[in-house]
Specification:
This protein has about 180 residues and is an all-alpha fold. The chain is built from 7 helices and no strands. Helices cover about 75% and strands about 0% of the residues. Keywords: Membrane, Transmembrane, Transmembrane helix.
Length: about 180
């Protein structure tokens, strides 16, 4: 009889131990899930910060070299101007491609990607960008840009009126209801 009681108690203790282990694992899983979510949010914030830094450097380059801005609307470019502008456009699109890849991989949230994508709209109105983009698509594999991104940019370019004023210019136009600065 003692052996039967000992066996019954062993089963009870074993069941309690299993129950405690399951509760512990459930708590650990919840904490791990929360930690993973926090890590993902931190990764997204870091990715966005890196992208903003890259964009700031890009804009600083344009500000430091106003000639780039002048060439964007110029007709009959020299070979040197074509090279400079094509390089500028390619660098810009490589930045956006990186942003897009980060978004597709989950390291960038949709709001941030849409913000980055909107800058493609800013550049797409430039007649020289339109020429660049249409010629780029004729090259062998479009310089390796992702096909899905190519379709997105093509849609933006096709829905944009070439020569339309840049948003940066529109942002600096006085509004009718605003007082002029002295």
């Amino acid at each position: 009889m003692k052996l039967e009681k000992l066996s019954a108690w062993s089963e009870i203790v074993s069941s309690v131990a299993i129950l405690i282990t399951l509760v512990y694992l459930a708590i650990q899983t919840g904490q791990n899930s929360e930690q993973m979510q926090q890590n993902l949010e931190a990764t997204k914030a870091s990715t966005r910060q890196q992208m903003l830094g890259t964009d700031m450097a890009f804009l600083r380059d344009i500000m430091d070299n106003p000639y780039i801005t002048n060439v964007q609307y110029k007709a009959n470019l020299t070979d040197a101007e074509k090279t400079m502008l094509a390089s500028q456009y390619t660098m810009f699109l490589r930045q956006r491609e990186n942003n897009w890849i980060q978004f597709k991989n989950g390291a960038l949230d949709e709001r941030s990607w849409l913000s980055m994508q909107s800058t493609i709209n800013v550049i797409a109105h430039q007649p020289n960008f339109q020429i660049y983009w249409k010629n780029l698509l004729k090259t062998n594999n479009a310089m390796g840009f992702a096909p899905e991104l190519n379709m997105l940019i093509t849609n933006i370019v096709e829905s944009t009126e070439p020569g339309k004023r840049a948003i940066f210019l529109e942002l600096m136009e006085p509004l009718a209801e605003t007082k002029q600065l002295p």
